[in-house]
Amino acid sequence: MKVTKAVIPAAGLGTRVLPATKAMPKEMLTIVDKPAIQYIVEEAVNSGITDILIITNRGKDVIEDHFDRCPELEERLLASKKQDVYEEVVSISKLANIYFIRQKETKGLGHAVNCARSFVGNEPFAVLYGDDVIIGDDPACGQLIRAYEKYGKVAVGIKAVPEADIHKYSSLKVDHLEDNLFNCTDMVEKPQTKEAVLSLYSILGRCVLTPDIFDILDNTAPGAGGEIQLTDAMKTLAQTVGITGVDYTGKRYDMGDKLGILQATVEIALKNPSLGEPFKAYLKEIVSTL
Ligand code: UTP
After folding, report:
1. What is the CATH number of the domain that holds 96?
2. How does DSSP assign 75-114, residue by residue?
3. Quick check: CB of 131 below 6 Å from ligand 1?
């Protein structure tokens, strides 16, 4: 079945980016000239997704406003003959059919994804983590969809993380299939001892799930951090039917982390058609003084 639906969980508290995220959702933090979540929605759309459910919570109404029309602003732009900006602003509201639901309590990523059950129905669906921006020529979400279509199993985006950091991530048991694809048969969330580490491959940012994940989530007890972990539910699938790991191409930026935000800003600004050259000249000047 073709994957046309996506879920973007964006209901986290963003405690690692405080105080910026006290009143502003981290998904709305700007990278150059667009909020992070717009890059993620664009990636989904470029991967063939037509319907997107964004999971929000209190204080995240600005996300809804960003994907809505804004008549007063549009009129002003037209009146002042700013046709290009007008078209860009209007196009945001036409990217996809975007729906919203609130996760009423912040009980973890697994709990957030479980809020998507009625939106998803009986179809496979993509999940794009709301604070992971991935930039690349071949959209990461589309790479996972192709892996799902080829192997018929849940597909997860994976990346090798530094050994010193693996205790903050999930660790996967993987066997190489072909190219950048792996069969994953087990996983552990946030391994706290060296012995618990299965490999340095971790699930990062994206997955394509099947609706059987919902019954598993219903029966998943709170795990690391007292939250319902999506990886704990995926582990059940990995151990029974196996899942496909995709070491996707593209650079991932962690917008839930202050250094990640700075890296995204610098690297994406350097690629910007109008700002890239002057920004590069500015950076060179700064670097020469360091
Ligand atoms: P994170 O664990 O990175 O988000 O979840 P967080 O809880 O905001 O992070 P801290 O507080 O800085 O440690 C990954 C994604 O899952 C969403 C987040 O919004 C983020 O996009 N999420 C997390 C939810 O939607 N609901 C939750 O209960 C937890």
Report:
1. 3.90.550.10
2. HHHHHTT-HHHHHHHHHHTTSSEEEEEE-SS---HHHHHH
3. yes
Task: Say how many domains are in the chain.
Answer: 1
State which of 13, 40, 227 you would mutate to test the pocket of ligand 1, scoring each by most atoms of that ligand within 8 A of its C-beta: 13
Separation of alpha carbons 217 and 210, rounded Å? 12
Digit-coded pLDDT (tens) for 137-185: 999 999 999 999 999 999 999 999 999 999 999 999 999 999 999 999 9
Q: Is the pTM of this model over 0.85?
A: yes
Tell me the two tokens of residue 279: 């920004």
112 Cβ closer than 6 Å to some ligand 1 atom: yes
- Residue 290 three-state SS: coil
Domain residues for the domain of 126 are 5-287
What is the per-residue DSSP string for 23-69? TS-GGG-EETTEEHHHHHHHHHHHTT--EEEEEE-TT-HHHHHHTS-
Instruction: Decide whether any atom of ligand 1 lies within 6 Å of the 226 Cβ.
Output: no
pLDDT digits (tens, 9 = 90+) for 248-284: 999 999 999 999 999 999 999 999 999 999 999 999 9
Nearest by Cα to 134 from 246, 238, 277: 246
What is the CB neighbour count within 10 angstroms for residue 8? 26
CA 59 to chain centre: 20
